[in-house]
Amino acid sequence: MQELVIPTRKPRKFLGEDFELNGWESLKGFYEDLVSREINSGEGLEQWFKDRDELESYLSENMAWRYIKMTCDTKNEEAQKNYQYFVTEIQPHLAVFDDKLNKKALESPFLKDLKGNGYKIALRSMKKSVEIFRESNIPLVTEIQTKSTEYQAATGAMTVTIDDEEMTLQKAGSFMMGTDRAKREEAWLKIGERREQDRTKLDKLFDELKGLRQKVAENADFKNYRDFAFASLGRFDYTPKDCFDFHESVAEAVVPLLDAGQKERKAKLGLDSYRPWDKKVDVEGREGLKPFTDGEDLLNKTEACFDKIDKRLGDYIRIMRKMGHFDVESRVGKAPGGYNYPLMEIGVPFIFMNATSTLRDVVTMVHEGGHAIHSFEVRELPLSLFKNTTSEVAEVASMAMELISMEHWDVFFETPEELKRAKIEHLEDILTVLPWIATVDKFQHWIYENPNHTAEERQAEWIKIFEQFADTQTDWSGFEKFKEATWHRQLHIFELPFYYIEYGMAQLGAISVWRNYKNDPKKGLEAYLRGLKMGYTGTIGEIYEAMDIKFDFSKATISELMGFVASELEVLKA
Q1: How many other CB atoms sit within 10 Å of the CB of residue 292?
Q2: pLDDT tens string 528-570
Q3: Which of 205, 326, 468, 544 shows a CA-CA span of 20 to 30 A to 96?
Q4: Nearest Cα to Cα of residue 331 among 354, 299, 303, 357
Q5: Alpha carbon distance 167, 157 (integer Å)
Q6: How many angstroms separate the CA atoms of 74 and 298, rounded?
Q7: How far apart are CA 552 and CA 509, in angstroms?
């Protein structure tokens, strides 16, 4: 067997090998050098970009480790302070110099000498950043980032006690797959009541965040934060109207399939009243799937699964394990959710998640594993500017890997019956997730189009939008208060506003990638990786085209792809 090669970072030529971040003063000279440097040729401009990239990659990774350590242990005050220090003492200075460096690059007479399509895409983003930058927004952005960590701390501290065991809400959620209906109801109610305890607190926090974001938008001469966010996120290839079209298409093409599926579940369960705690239990009365025993077993099986797709992909997981770049098991005090954090200097990412031995955890692992594959595939691109791809592409990397890997989930599920059941559950989840994505995105548009709304008005609008994309089978009677605040569980609304519809667009792309892979595994995988290797050196449409898929979320396309998913489900259920 070929020996595993552990990547090393490139030598620091501009910063020097011994550089360590010791406050802003240790950085200031490097930024002043870049601002004042005389550039006399295209080669000189390229070197300037490389030096800037080295500096920014170092800082990106430094910030990454502070965030990772903070989320791994939200009770660790030292980790919290280290993260906050970067946000409050370093980032405000970086924002000022980032604008100065962007302007310097854009004003260079040697731009025409830069080679490669990556620069064209990068300069497009730089122009937009210069347009919307306002120095008066720096303290506001800092305050927003600081307040966002309050959400992490609040949700990370939420626990419930079931059967005399204190556990995270994520672990308690695994009871929803149990066959004991009374136990499901108990767990669901305890989770709901625990969230309800912090409802006023989180509403108040969100009101503060909303107000700060509106100020940022107005300072940058935007009417509302939604329009500012579209500019800030670099959404060059679609508009708010396209999002509205997506909402309508999902309502017309997906929600009826969702409703039919829930109606079928209700009938099979033989229930007169189909409750929120009945939505995940197996309709044949089988206990929830247990695809792995613990974090180590999950990683072993993920390696084996990726090896079956391509050994190189399995090596990526082995490299990350060797370097200690995983924290996968749920525990008290750990932040909720999961992520793949790119580390820009070393080029080997870190995966964080909260595994509790469920199918959902397998999906999360291969999802974040898809992001990790993306990080490895762009590792050799010369600049981070070319690696930091738009989310509409990044989420295809992850969501397509959910579906590609599904063809090899026999490593997680020992019997054909369990494997078939896992595939059915995952595909049915797609019919659930697309309406949820539309719900969250439409809600955010309303929030920021109506920035002066009250918490009560927001609650009423949430229910209105929720009902538009929900099935008609679930009986919430008696628990309406829980439904009113279900949006609190979506961390993107608090921490990453408007970063959510990308999952919907990418889900469509992922289904297309999977269809290609099923038709021809070798050709389908090659196309998928070809698109990932591009990083952000092309438009979204060009990258999708490289993957042999379309960037299109019209009703016709959504209907076609949902038809494919429905046909696959029919085969599995036959």
Answers
A1: 21
A2: 999 999 999 999 999 999 999 999 888 899 999 999 999 999 9
A3: 205
A4: 354
A5: 10
A6: 24
A7: 8
The pLDDT of residue 1 is above 70:
no
Segments in 7-90 forming alpha helices (H): 25-36, 42-72, 77-85
In tens, the pLDDT along 390-401 reads 989 999 999 999
d(CA 497, CA 491): 9
On the CB side of 222, CA atoms within 13 Å amount to: 23
User: Read out DSSP for 333-374?
Assistant: TSPSS-EEE--TTT---EEEEEE-SSHHHHHHHHHHHHHHHH
The kind and range of the H/E element at 327 are: strand 326-329
First to last CA, the chain: 41
> Encoding tokens for residue 46?
């390229």
**Under 8 Å between Cβ of 527 and 510:** no
CA distance 174 to 180: 12
Which amino acid, 251? A
Residue 2 has pLDDT above 80, yes or no: no
Contact (Cβ atoms closer than 8 angstroms) between residue 110 and residue 42:
yes
Helices of type H across 270-345 = 295-309, 311-322
The answer for residues whose C-beta is within 8 angstroms of residue 2's C-beta and 6 or more apart is none
State the residue for tokens 């924002």: 95
What φ, ψ does residue 397 adopt, rounded to 5°? -55, -45
pTM of the model: 0.89
Residue 115 has pLDDT above 90, yes or no: no
